[in-house]
Amino acid sequence: MKLSSSRRRFVLVASLTVLVFLGIGRRAFAADTFTVIEFPGATLTRATAINDAGDIVGDYEDIAGLRHGFVLSHGVFATIDVPGGRHTTAAGINAAGDIVGYYTTCPPAGCTGLGVFHGFLLSDGLFSTIDVPGANRTQAFRISARGDIVGVFAVSGQEHGFVIGKDGLQTVDVTGAANTQVDGINARGQMVGHFNVAGGERRGFLLTDDVFTTIDVPSSVQTSIRWISDRGEIGGFFSDASSEHGFVLSRGSVTVVDAPDGVATRVNAITNRGEIVGEFVSADGAVHAFLSY
Fold first, then answer.
1. Where are the domains of the chain?
2. Do the beta carbons of residue 268 and residue 277 sit within 8 Å?
């Protein structure tokens, strides 16, 4: 996928934070509304996205410590590995079944850590690599119903969000932020993600019609936004003094999502019907994917 870049100016509205939240509640799970998802034989499984057809994508780690993407459709797993890649994560899927994510490769001198990150698009069985020009790391996270792709790229250690749409590749930076990452986009073009301020604090944002609104869950230390549905429901996770908790923000009210028997929970995606996928850490330190109705 050949890309040319442009920069677009956005406006940060930081004063709306306290106005976003009308109430905070907790979600209680019945036994038949919470399903743990485990890829067979994997040491960890994460669910990163779901479309309205119920197809779920994510990644898993094998006993050798390598990450592989997957799609779970009608109860059947299929592994997704980018040809020539070392690690692969499937991060987003739209209604058409197009999948985006990221993979790593090893440079000629050998791998240090996970390797070099590249984004990818999987459409009609064909892989296309997504590399932002001049970047040393590119990751694609979501693809909307109309085919817009969002993610993050890094240049000299600084992270910038991006969107690829009808106007080509555009950079998304919160004014004054040390780093910006775009994690989600819906069919209306609204984008969500997070940014870091100079002190390292992570804060969530919503970008609508070129205007940013900051989203900080009350009493949180850090807030990360992972998803926005076509109905405008927002999902993500936040950290407080004790742990990480998933949450859903709908019509100004926050619902905290904690997996049963989990010590940490992240909400990664929400369908337009309200189904939630994410991941949680159990008491033994293992990472599991989940689907909640």
1. 5-292
2. yes
Tell me, what's the pLDDT at 183?
Answer: 98
pLDDT tens by residue, 207-258: 999 889 999 998 899 999 999 999 999 999 999 988 999 999 998 899 999 9
5-292 — its CATH code?
A: 2.120.10.30
* Side chain identity at residue 203, one-letter code: R
User: Please, are residues 137 and 178 in contact by the beta-carbon 8 Å criterion?
Assistant: no
User: How high is the pLDDT of residue 6?
Assistant: 54
Residue type, 17: T
Is residue 215 a contact partner of residue 194, using CB atoms and an 8 Å limit? no
Which of 68, 19, 21, 15 has the alpha carbon at shortest distance from 40?
Answer: 68
pTM as predicted: 0.92
Angle (CA) 256 244 140, round 5°: 95
* Residues whose CB falls within 8 Å of the CB of residue 119, separated by 6 or more in sequence, listed in order: 100, 101, 102, 129, 130, 131, 138, 139, 140, 149, 151
